[in-house]
Amino acid sequence: MRHLILGVCLAVAPPACAQGIADLSPGARDYVEGNILGTLYHEMGHALIDQLDLPVLGQEEDAADMLAVVLAHGLWEEDYARRVAAATALSFLLSSQEGNETSYWDVHGPDEQRYYNTVCLFYGANPEGRADFAELFELPEDRAALCPEEFTLADESWGAFLYEIELEEGADPATALTVSDGGGDPEITVLLQDEITDLNAIYALPEPVVVHHEPCGEVNAFYFPETRSISICTEYVDYLIEQAIGAEL
C-alpha cells in the first residue's frame, strides 16, 4: 500500500528508552542489526513494487515481508542469514507480547502472524538444514509441512522480477542505492552503507533510491514513492534496542 501522506511503513510500537548499539551485548547488537537489514529489505520490496509497477495479488505488506526473507536467504551465508531471519521473527513475537491491541483494520498483518510467516518461509527455504530453526521458534508441524511450497512460491514470484534488475557477472556496480546520514547512530549508518554497497554490486534499480537514517517523530520505517526514498527512523532503532535489552539478549 502506498500511504497517501507518510509512505509505506513497517508499523511497530513506541519506545521507552534509547542508547547506541555500541553499548549493547553481542547478542543484542546482532538482534538490532538483523532487524535493520530485514527492514531495509522490506522497504526495498515497496520500492521495487513502485518502480517496476509490479502486480500485487494480496497485501503489499505481505509481499514486502516475503522479499525480506527471500533476500536474507539468498544474499547471506547460513550463519548470518539465520541471524537476520531470527531477529526479524523475534521482533514480531516480542511486539505481539507487549499487550497492544491488534489493529485488524491496519494494512499490516498481526505481529504474531508475521512472526509465523517469517519463520515458515525461512525454514521452507531449507527444510532439511533448518529443522532446528523451526523447532526453536515452535513452528507447528501442520504449518511446517506447507512451508517449502510457500517459500518456493515466494522465491519464484520475486525471483522473476529480481532477475530483471540483476547485474551481469563482471559488470560495474550500480549506483542507484545511496545512503544519506540524517543524524542517527553512526554505526547504523555504516551498517546501511555497507549493505547498500553490496546490493549495488548485485542489483541495478531503475531509479535512484536514497536511504535515510534520521528522526521521524515516530517508531517506524518508510518507503516514500513520491521522493523514491527510504527512511529508517532513529526512533525505530531505539525501539529495537529497548526490545533487545528487555529480552536480555
Strand content bin: 5-15%
Tell me the distance between the termini: 33 Å
Gross geometry: globular
Write down the oligomeric state.
single chain
Question: Radius of gyration over alpha carbons?
Answer: 17 Å
Number of helices: 9
Mean pLDDT level? 88
Order of helices and strands: EHHHHHHHEHEEEH
What is the spatial order of strands in the main beta sheet?
Answer: 1-4-5-3-2
Please summarize the sheet with the most strands. Answer: 5 strands, mixed
**Can you give the helix content as a percent range?**
40-55%
Tell me the number of strands. 5
Compute the number of structural domains. 1
Structural class: alpha/beta
Description:
Helices cover 53% and strands 9% of the residues. With 249 residues, the protein is α/β, with parallel strands linked by helices. It has one domain (8-246). It has a 5-stranded mixed beta sheet with strand order 1-4-5-3-2.
